[in-house]
Amino acid sequence: MERLRAMKTPFLLLFLIFMALSCFREQPTQIDGALTLTLYVKFEDRFLNSIPVTIKTYDYNSISFGGVTDSCGAVFFEDIPWAEYLTTIKSTAIVASVLDSNAMDTVTVIASTLITPTETSINENIIIDTIYTIASGAQPGLKINELYTVKVSVICDQFIELYNSSEDTVYLDGMLFVRIYIMLEWPSSIFQFPGEPLIGREYPVPPGAFVVVAKDAMDHTNIPNFPLPESVDLSHADWEFKNSMDYGDYDNPDVPNLDNIEVGCRTDFGIGLSTDVILITDGSDVNYLDGIAIESVIDGVEYATSSTHIKDIEKEVDRGFGGIGLTKWSGQSLERVAVGFDSNNSTVDFVIIDHPTPGYQHE
Ligand SMILES: [Ca+2]
Ligand SMILES: [Ca+2]
Ligand SMILES: [Ca+2]
Ligand SMILES: [Ca+2]
């Protein structure tokens, strides 16, 4: 009994102090268990206003709180339990255009950040932190890492290289390669990996692995009567585009095929020499007649040689375009500046390299 009474008293005291302090919210509370969290939300160098922010802790039966950033880009959470919080953001935002310094673009920004209070800090009950959002589509995953499009001659030595920048194995089963004519509603070549989209597990790509998809998987440097040493040997590509309705389309028996799914299409996968948009999608939307669903897009890259090019794909997929200065027939290639690096803005994500690098990253 003695011990019970002794334990009850401090609890009662704490409760009374808590009640008293909660009447004066402007005073800092120093009670263990109360935290004041101020989060600033940024995209690139700009603070974002009117962005919904959710914080959630699993420490106390998974409690979550929501708020919206003010005109300074700040959101406040007061008197919340002292705990580790997962901060998540997914919202449309007005951000600076990458192609026109006087314009703004609407993009979807995302963030998923862990906020951990430290007991060693002087003001352990007050946390002020900045959440850096990224464009949706820039998170790690399967990336179009290189596009070798300009060729060295009329031969079909083009390829697209994928790279898995995530920490998880991804599966190519049922994924689509799509060439875009104008915007997602107008695809112009649609080829599919074998297997079941989303659930298939036949064609794994481990973390950090490259996948070379050739237009025609042959050694283009050593074609009888037409040797082109400056071209590229794609006879060991991982995959090749082969339209089974195009009997003239080369088929390397040792290299598996992606086949065309577009009714009536009898040509190989088209890759524009110096201007195009190439997408990889998860294959969940194969009804291409009403366009390609943006939710199914895993990665998309636009490229064009001219700086005055007008974009052909939604800025949600790629805010800019790479390839300014690419020269037809030069044998140059377009590769991400660093392996898998993706900010969803191909203007800065890609660089022109002198020679293609199928299956590896340029130095
Ligand atoms: Ca082919
Ligand atoms: Ca083949
Ligand atoms: Ca991307
Ligand atoms: Ca490469």
What would you note in describing this structure?
There is one protein chain. Strand 3 and strand 4 form a beta hairpin. This protein has 2 domains: 30-135, Immunoglobulin-like, CATH 2.60.40; 139-363, Immunoglobulin-like (Sandwich), CATH 2.60.40.1260. It has an 11-stranded mixed β-sheet with strand order 19-18-12-13-17-16-15-10-9-20-21. It is built from 2 helices and 21 strands. By secondary structure, the protein is mostly beta strands. The chain is elongated, with a radius of gyration of 27 Å. It is 7% helix and 35% strand. Bound molecules: calcium ion (4 copies). Residues 145-146, 161, 335, 357, 360-361 line the site of one calcium ion (CA).
Keywords:
eleven-stranded mixed beta sheet, 2 domains, elongated, Immunoglobulin-like, single chain, eight-stranded mixed beta sheet, 2 helices, mainly beta, 363 residues, binds calcium ion, 7% helix, 21 strands
